[in-house]
Design a protein that fits this description.
By secondary structure, the chain is of the alpha/beta class. Helices cover about 35% and strands about 30% of the residues. Strands 6-7-8-3-9-10 form a six-stranded mixed β-sheet, sandwiched between helices. A four-stranded antiparallel β-sheet has the order 2-1-4-5. The relative contact order is 0.17.
Amino acid sequence: MPAAIQLRGVSKSYGKVRALQNLDLDIPAGGVYGLLGPNGSGKTTTLRMITGILLPDAGRIEIFGHAAGRASRDLLGYLPEERGLYPKMKLREQLVFFARLKSVPRAEAERRAGYWLERLELQDWGGRRLNELSKGMQQKAQFAVSLLGEPRVLILDEMTSGLDPVNAELVRQILLEQRAAGKTILFSTHRMEDAERLCDSICLIARGRKLLDGDINEVRARAGRQTARLDFRGDAGLLQQAPGVLQADLYGNYAELRLAQPDQAPALLRWLAPRLEITRFELLQPTLNQIFLETVARGGETAEPHPGEAAAAGSEATHA
């Protein structure tokens, strides 16, 4: 699959703090790509450089084969992590205004604003100022702005921030519709459940360095099957004593067992069979959360933020 966005050797520093170090990315066209990492890992810096809000200190960024810059901005829709709309401007007027900035004719801008207000269940709030809306409504408004220009690439920074479960699901459904329409979606998150449900490919970064990337199924396959699900009746305390079990997480009448080696599963099952009543035993692919925690731990990383990235949040441009 051709790349929609390519980064080669991209680095960025804020003073003496290195926010990104020699980052290479290939983001396929027409799929959902998740940029994962702890808070302060460099995710937002990466997105701001792709949109042109920030310039890299070194390296190059290409969008559909052309150098990122002013000419590529109309290809992008951007939802920033920080609030970027005008608090005292009425919502519908604001949507029309941002559509016009994307060179959408006024009549079409009005139509698109009406469509997204209804689609995002904001139609009753179109005449209200932004600062009269809840945090979740403001997040949906920003999401609408990212879609108004009908961009080829959607770039979303912590897209479900401030949303309740119902509205988070609504946003996910719209993203799946956008993917089905051939759009490329790049989003950053530290919420692994969003990545699990949406992503075709992922990249995990921490402290500005790429730790792993690739097709999400290939990433899981490389991590191996070292978790077993066990449905059982009996003394759960035996699981902590079972040979080859590093960790046993108990959830009522079932458990997830972290194995030292996946080939220990047959011996483990033979040991458990005479001691517990077992109704299910299967090896599972690791979750992204497990891969995330173990990969970051192996890299010796922490989730402490980069001071420079935090400081840059206040100066972020409204929308690309």
